[in-house]
Design goal:
The chain has helices spanning about 5-30, 35-45, 55-75, 75-90, 115-135, 165-180, and strands spanning about 95, 105, 140, 150-155. Strand 1 and strand 2 (about 105) form a beta hairpin. With about 180 residues, the protein is mostly helical. It contains six helices and four strands.
Length: about 180
Amino acid sequence: MSNTLLRMVAVQGFKAGAAHAVRRCAAVLNAVDGGPSAIRATLAQYGERTEELSEDQVAALSQAAQRLRAIAAEESLDRVCDALNDILATCRPPRLTAHDGSPWHLHIDADDDADWGEWFLASSAMALAITVSDAQQPPLGVCRAPGCANVYPVSSPGRPRRYCSTTCSTRARVHAHRTRS
């Protein structure tokens, strides 16, 4: 393979890893209100081993999720970047790791045994920052449908999404129509 092709494959893999982490971030933010079992199940869906996730670690993960939810609710790209920079300033320099049989990947938390809250905040902030630098828009949004506060990844190049799903979009349109009628 040529050097250019190798770089393209590496960048695509890097973006795919960031996209996966952004989806995981949104899913965990949505699972936090469901308690420890919902958080464990969500992390497991994204390939994380949660057997050792204690109640204290769930609490730390929930605190990290609160910081990230505030970023999701922010519509100003400048304020999103400021908030991400605040988090990234507390992280460690990037390092490569291949723990627990995973392929080599970047971490910016203290070590492979870092607290779950630190790991989630650092890995999510890094993925969100990669997404911002690629798309030049806030990476997460909060559903605007009445009665829904789900967080979703914003990955559309066109008009910004306002709803977490087609169900919420339809519900909001029906609600708006009934309000006008």
